[in-house]
Amino acid sequence: MQAQDRLIVALDVSSLEEARLIVEELKGSVGMFKIGLEMFTACGTEVFEFIESYKSEKNTRFFFDGKFHDIPNTVAAACRNTTRPNVAMFNIHAQGGIEMMSAAAKATREQAQNLKISKPILIAVTVLTSISESILHEQIRTSKDLDLPQYVVHLAKLAKEAGLDGVVASPKEVPLIRSACGDDFVIVTPGIRPNWPELGSDDQKRVLTPSQAIAQGSTYLVIGRPITKAQNRLDAVNRLVAELV
Ligand code: C5P
């Protein structure tokens, strides 16, 4: 995979106009654009029409970050509805368990076959990077026998067993996941910050630089504000890609 194809730009905006502006500036220069709950709750299913409007442009693909987590039947239906032309990737929560994830994988496979489109890459969120070890043990009350990285690896293995293509995880957990789940397993990592003096600090705390994340074994890097808030977004992308090669 080329370095630029590893970049996923988070479209954390609340209107299709803003999203289109960014996509028009960066299409062909990055691997995918991520549309998540912010755009979905502002624009509804128009986001899928937006995604489909780029289907003839081979290099303009989308990751729908819907993080589905419900009973197996409902998640399977949501996965069928999300398996559409030009949705190259979407996700569910690994904490929904193996039955939910297997139902999601099956529904996605079958819908792609019915529509005669390539199957989207289906990945699972392991543990959100906003969850700390103490939240995990004291609020969610997972077993103290597993520390947070071990719990993440446990969920990644469940996702693989259920037939998913990969996971979303913090870049810090990537080496453990890579060795547990193999070279072909897709690992998508947010929490990426280049070492650029003008960026300052924001709400991302546990960060790695893009090249560190790739060196750890990440397949795709989700990057939002360092690109979307840059004075010149294309320059920011080119600078990131140059750091990766
Ligand atoms: O602007 P920034 O690079 O921090 O954007 C990161 C993107 O990745 C946001 O869309 C955020 O919601 C998402 N994300 C994250 N941490 C997670 C999961 C998703 O930052 N654990």
How does this model look, in words?
It is built from 11 helices and 8 strands. The protein has 245 residues and is an alpha/beta fold. It has one domain (3-244): TIM Barrel (Alpha-Beta Barrel), CATH 3.20.20.70. It has an 8-stranded parallel beta barrel with strand order 1-2-3-4-5-6-7-8, surrounded by 7 helices. Strand 7 (186-189), helix 9 and strand 8 form a beta-alpha-beta unit. It starts with 6 loop residues before the first strand and ends with a helix. The structure holds cytidine-5'-monophosphate (C5P). Cytidine-5'-monophosphate is lined by residues 10, 12, 36, 128-129, 168, 190-191, 204, 222-225. Cytidine-5'-monophosphate binds at residues 10, 12, 36, 128-129, 168, 190-191, 204, 222-225.
In DSSP terms (H or I, runs of 4 or more residues), the helix count works out at: 11
| CATH fold group | TIM Barrel
What is the straight-line distance between the termini? 11 Å
**In total, how many beta strands?**
8
CATH C-level label: Alpha Beta
Q: Which sheet architecture does the biggest sheet show?
A: 8 strands, parallel, barrel
Q: What is the CA-atom radius of gyration, in angstroms?
A: 17 Å
What is the CATH architecture assignment?
Answer: Alpha-Beta Barrel
Residue share in helix: 40-55%
- At the fourth level of CATH, the homologous superfamily is Aldolase class I
Structural class: alpha/beta
Q: What is the H/E order? A: EHEHHEHEHEHHEHEHEHH
* β-strand amount: 15-25%
Number of domains as seen in the coordinates: 1
Shape estimate: globular
- Residue stretches low in confidence (pLDDT < 50, at least 5 long) are none
Which ligands accompany this protein?
Answer: cytidine-5'-monophosphate
Mean pLDDT: 95
Strand order across the largest sheet: 1-2-3-4-5-6-7-8
